[in-house]
Amino acid sequence: MKIKVLQLVEGFNFGGAETKLLELVKHMDDDRFETTVISLGLGNEIEELFHQLDCRVMTFQRQKQVDFSLLRRVRNFIRDERIDIVMTTLFYADVLGALAGHSSGAKGVFSWETISSPKWLTPHRLWSYRYAIRNADRVISVSKATAEWLVEKRKVAADKVMIIPYGVNLDKFNPHIKSIQRKDIGLQEDDIIVGQVSRLDEQKGHTFLINAAPIIIAQQPRVKFVLVGDGPLRLELMHKIDQMGLHDYFIFLGFRRDVPDLLPLFDLFVLPSLYEGLPNVVLEAMACGLPVVATPVDGTKEAVVDGQTGILVPVGDPYRLANSILSVISNEQLKKRLGMKGRRRVEDEFSLDDQVNRFECLYEAYAFRN
């Protein structure tokens, strides 16, 4: 008999947590697990991709800020469908899933913590999370740094926290140029491409890259900055670029489903984030043989080995960011060496098969225990 798994997620936004959940569900063994994904309606950017999965996908739409009817709906679903395992992703799902899980008969209840966000520490969020998460069996962190943050800041019991790092599909993400050419996105073959793939949100530090751009352009006038992703800061960032006279140097590609094809077109990947969990896109860039310049926040410094697979720069320092980018794109040997070692590190330490296998073993351990 298959193990029945409920994946409860806050919404279907284009974020790292949501895209990793999509990938996990896609690669679960269908012969052993029967998965249902329920969104609580906070975002729908990649909802269509979830509906393409070979599993049941539903939305329990939140009607107001605190919607107690959702707790009842989730409880009823777990009980009526005889769900064995409940795993939750992102805050609102964490609270509801932890409260509903065991009280409705689930054998294992897990929270997947993918980011060390300051907004989770506001008093009303912190206290509701701490109250609810006592009912979870395990809190699964994507990095050592996030695990420490969970214990120190969110006061999760240390023996409840376990680490399962993100994994990358190495067949999908590799250095080989695929179906897209530079000309297809408005670039020349001799352009130097600095790329960032992320939601256009304050957390991701785009402003620091824009402020660093004039320094980079002054020494490397062939440079172009390609931003992949969308989000609430799009218009603000575009306005800032125009005000600084940088319109000709920045390309906004918006939300794309062909990121594995785009990454090999870049010369360097940049992620000047304010905070992270374990940024999967950094691992994907490394898998594509790209050198990475990023900030040493949370799990980023566990992925990027400073001076070996990339360069880590202080948060909020456009000058250091610019000079680190310049040091790589101006040195072809350094660029290739960092990229090759990055690919090797992902192969050795961040396998998607290993990640999926660890989740499957965890689910089975709780589903079959007496």
3D structure, described in words:
- The structure is a single chain.
- The protein has 14 helices and 13 strands.
- It is α/β, with parallel strands linked by helices.
- The protein folds into two domains: 3-167 and 351-367, Rossmann fold (3-Layer(aba) Sandwich); 182-349, Glycogen Phosphorylase B (Rossmann fold).
- The strands form two sheets. A seven-stranded parallel beta sheet has the order 3-2-1-4-5-6-7, with helices on both faces. Strands 10-9-8-11-12-13 form a six-stranded parallel beta sheet, sandwiched between helices.
- β8, α7 (206-219) and β9 form a beta-alpha-beta unit.
- α3 (68-81) crosses α4 (91-100).
- The chain is elongated and about 65 Å long.
- The mean pLDDT is 94.
Radius of gyration: 21 Å
Q: What would the CATH topology of the largest domain be?
A: Rossmann fold
Total domain modules: 2
**Topology order in helix (H) and strand (E) letters:** EHEHEHEHEHEHEEHEHEHEHEHEHHH
Structural class: alpha/beta
Shape label: elongated
- In whole angstroms, how far apart are the ends? 16 Å
DSSP, total strands = 13
Average pLDDT rating: 94
- What amount of the residues lies in strands? 15-25%
Q: What would CATH call the homologous superfamily of the largest domain?
A: Glycogen Phosphorylase B
The CATH level-2 architecture of the largest domain is identified as 3-Layer(aba) Sandwich
Summarize the entry for a quick read.
This protein is α/β, with parallel strands linked by helices.
